[in-house]
Amino acid sequence: MDYPISVPSAGLVNGKFVDEDALAGSPGSLIPASWGNGVTQEILGVVRAAGMTPSESSNTQLLDALRSTQLFQTPARFDVSRSVATPEFVQRALGNYAGARGVTAATQLTAADVGWAIGLGGDLPYTVSLPEINSVPNGAMFALHCRSNAAVTIACTGNAKISPQGAYLTSVVMNSGESATVIREYGVWVVHGTASLKYAASLYASVGNPGYQKHASGNIDQWGFGTTDALGEMWVNFPIAFPNAFFSCVANHVGGEGAMVIVVGGTATKLGVRLKVRNAVNQPGAGWTVFYFAKGY
Q: Nearest Cα to 127, choosing from 180, 159, 183, 171?
């Protein structure tokens, strides 16, 4: 709406209404019926949109309408337009999680779970499946916390990949106490949180015997076992090669009498080391099982 500038008889001065000036002989502006009706209809439109009934006796209905809960609707969850953001929308988007719930068995997440804090409980292993990745927008997030007594697998649906620490996998495993924030990021589910640490290249591990554990410092522990030959010796092949250097190796034997396990001087490399077993009277310990623990970086 605007002033009735297209109506010459309205008598606007500089585009605005003016009062009559009897002393100067200047007439006052006239308010055309079309303009007065237009202003009234504009105001009544706001009052009615708020679900209110217009009343001649009230002079506060416009303000009441602007303060009502019906006039401003909370935009849809993934609305990225420039519509008005209600406190409800802001609280949901920034202030807190959209809600919280727990699961204890196989579950398929959907777009309705975006923004929720989801606790993973239970006593048996199960799988929680992420929604089809194209069903949610970029930035869609699920906050997962595992308090289950068994491992919980977080799996992709369709051809999407889940990426903890830069790896591209079809699923990740969460153990009790671990947390994961899973975010849709340009066609990939990116994982942040403690559940992703075990997938970091600097923290890779092989659980078992033999096995190894990488540490964030760069140090690597490796372990395993073997059986000595007729000379009481055995060659240890480390599960993985030390990238830079071998530090040390300690070992013990399995048997019913005392013995020494010796690292044969000059044999250590980044790939392995030779061990020698001698009993209490310096005789070769042939056919003995030896467990070792090696360090390097």
A: 171
